[in-house]
Amino acid sequence: MNYEKFVEDNSLNYQILEMKFKQGKSYKEIAGELNKSIITIGQRYRMFRWSLYTCYYRYLKSIGLEVDAKDIRNFYQSSSHAVAYLEKTYSEALTLFRGDETPVFLENVKNLPPYRKLTDRQVLNLEKKIVKAREGQGRTFADIGKELKITKEKTRRIYGHYYHKKVMKALDRIEAHTGNEGSYFIFDYSDSSRKRWELIVKDYPDLVQDLIDN
Hints:
With 214 residues, this protein is mainly alpha-helical.
């Protein structure tokens, strides 16, 4: 697929993007002009980011460039940043692909962290720093991420995964101790791993005492 065809197939989503970036309009304003719900506008915007990332990746692959698309996406945890990274790193190839059209996200993404592969040990080290900064200092994910040179989305993901691991360990203990599987209730309780963990600590403090942070 060439870029012109991609834009044609995603014309409404591309229009939303232009209204957001070039005209500086809010989701509410865009929704009003296009006679769509705010939720729909947000969904279409997010869909376009992912579609463009996939389109770029397939093109780069087709001309023989090796791109670790999965790891790049995992590092940024943000389609906007992942797209901007490709537009910056493969500038020449993607400029030709777009037919000299300007980069779509690069100029609109602020503070693009340098991409790097993270080992398991590095992730665990980031995890400790994030939890300490978040809970010990009450800092925002954006602020923590800026200091650690990762996106706020990646910061939030690492933080959530920290509590997800606790929840899964606790559920195994609860099931072994009570004979009841509590996962359905716990996962219905909240989308937040931390809130799920807080409920477990409240209901089964003795079972998970060693998992509670001091």
